[in-house]
Amino acid sequence: MDVFDAYENDLEDIEIVEMGIPRQMYTRADHFYGLPELQFFQRFRLTKPTVLHLLTLIEERLEFPTDRNQAVSPINQLLTTLRFFASGVHLSTVADYMGMHISTVSRIIRRVLDAIAKLYHHFIKMPQTLMEQRLIENGFFDIARMEIIQIV
């Protein structure tokens, strides 16, 4: 028996395992229930009732049909996006804080922003008449002494 024959026989007994990067599993903290109201506000810049109200408006757009692959819940998606905007830091910092991978955080922020942007017609109202436009102009002036100049 040749050395190569013995080697081939040994290889037949070894189960071939696909090589690759091991899957990363993250532990996610429960920031909504785990933080007192003041700390929650300091980290996410919204109160818990406001977050719950916003969540009810966008939850159906954020829900995954299954829990496969540790799907991120709608509340955690919203909190991830709020943390990104409240902190003004890099995605990696938000990912570390929320217990997620950077690419997951990036996809979540895009997804939540799309869901919120679709609510524009509920919250953004353009003035329809000249009188409404003047009231808005006066409101800006009263708040910040800002004059609106119309260019014709």
Key features?
mainly alpha; 9 helices; elongated; Nuclease HARBI1
Rg value? 26 Å
Which residue ranges are poorly predicted, with pLDDT under 50 across at least 5 consecutive positions? none
What is the count of β-strands?
0
Strand content: under 5%
Counting DSSP H or I runs of 4 or more residues, the number of helices is: 9
Question: What distance lies between the first and last C-alpha atoms, to the nearest angstrom?
Answer: 96 Å
Broad structural category? mainly alpha
What is the makeup of the main sheet? Answer: none
Organism: Zophobas morio
Protein name: Nuclease HARBI1
Give a description of the structure:
The chain is mainly α and 152 residues long. The chain has one domain. It contains 9 helices and no strands. It has helices at 3-13, 31-34, 37-44, 48-62, 74-87, 91-98, 102-117, 120-123, 130-144. The longest helix is centred in the last third of the chain and has 16 residues, at 102-117. The mean pLDDT is 85.
